Amino acid sequence: SVQVNHQFAIDTTGRYYLLFSSCLNSTGDVEMTGEIVWINPYGYLPGELYHFIPLFYWLSIGFLALGLVWGLLCILYRNDLLHLQHYVSIVIVLGLLETAVWYFDYVSFNDKGTRAIGPVVVGVVLSSVKRTLSRLLVLIVCMGYGVMKPTLTQDQKNKVALLGFVYFVFSSVYDVMSSYSQMTYIMQHIRAFF
């Protein structure tokens, strides 16, 4: 049994191939097991994902600032708030939670080299809920709720709820496939199908 431990510093960007060979015909069958670890100067994240760390950091800061200003304005004008504005508050909180989860997920991935499934699932669910709720808010405002109508009919509420459920399911499937394709190398045409 031969154990090889080798580190090679790469100075230029490009495609690299790792080849193993057993040159002795008398060796017979060769079984190889092992692990190859690629690490960049900044950590384990691939180059195409590294920019997500500062992006989600600044998005978290932005949602926090927006939430503080929105919360202060809601407190100042609490007697004049519409129900719609409470839903906007929920969207802002969901945005803050989502960007914070993605930020810590990518920082952990960059530090450890592996991606835990828990933060990915939480991030996907938060993202899908936030997008669903924000799109439903736009829809019900376009239907006149809060502006022209004090309430929606039960039939309208049922249709909006059904549309929201369908959107949430498809959005979640898309997000899972997108996150999964970043965790593994899934074929592009399968990803495009979903």
Description:
The protein has helices spanning 47-50, 52-76, 83-112, 117-142, 154-183, 188-193. It has 6 helices and no strands. The chain has 194 residues and is an all-alpha fold.
Helix and strand layout, with pairings?
Elements: H1 47-50, H2 52-76, H3 83-112, H4 117-142, H5 154-183, H6 188-193
Helix pairs in contact: 2-3, 3-4, 4-5
Question: Which terms would index this structure?
Answer:
single chain, mainly alpha
User: Structural class, judged by helices and strands?
Assistant: mainly alpha
Order of helices and strands: HHHHHH
Contiguous uncertain segments of 5+ residues: 186-191
Rg for CA atoms: 25 Å
Helix content bin: 55-70%
Strand residues, percent: under 5%
Q: Any idea what the shape is?
A: elongated
> Strand count, sense and closure of the main sheet?
none
Average pLDDT works out at 85
Distance between the termini: 46 Å
- Distinct helical segment count: 6
Number of E-type strands: 0
Short description:
With 194 residues, the chain is mainly alpha-helical.
